[in-house]
Description:
Order of helices and strands: EHHEEEHEEHEHEHEH
Radius of gyration: 20 Å
Oligomer: single chain
Strand order of the largest sheet: 6-5-2-1-7-8-9
Helix content: 25-40%
Distance between the termini: 26 Å
Amino acid sequence: MLTYSIMLDGAFVRRKAGSAAKPATSQDVVRLSTAIQRHPLLTSHRLHRIYFYDAAPSTEIIENPFSKERLDFGATRAHRASEVMHSQLAREAFFANRLGELSFQGWAPKMDLRKVTEESLTLGSADIRPVVGQKGVDMRIGLDMASLSLKKLSSIIVLVTGDSDFVPAMKFARREGTQVLLVTLGHGVKEQMLHHADIVLPTSVADWFIQCDNAICESL
Length: 220
């Protein structure tokens, strides 16, 4: 019996499992994780841990450069939703949150400037949006892949992502004797990711959920 860990790229899972109208919830994350655990390739092996990599919600207060209106990220619906998700996942068996941070990176036009045909363009306070990015999340995934491999804590790493930035970590883990299963959730990935995974499971989120609902997630 081998030991395996599931590593969930939180931003990727949220995007594939939810939408703007219906954001992904902790229940969606648990359903996906449970379905993956019950895949025939893993049922005879022992789960070490499920790692959920995401950015902790920001409490930064920013100011619109045009209207001078202040936006408190800590008071937004997205902030509360992230707090709830992380809290609920932390209470799930074998789950571990690995959180980076959100960083405000400035303002950008809401419209796609590539489609603008006018020679000049006037923007107002309602025409721009804040740009935020994750910091420290990818680094944590890479470090944990290396640590799990070097310490022989997991013979199999199930990596759920579509980000080719993890190719070096995938290559390192395989050089250390760890098998890498890549779960793409139906997302198109670069060829090099396919080359450096031992097995690719391209099943979409919807199909994972169908498997879960059909037979294997009665306890959820």
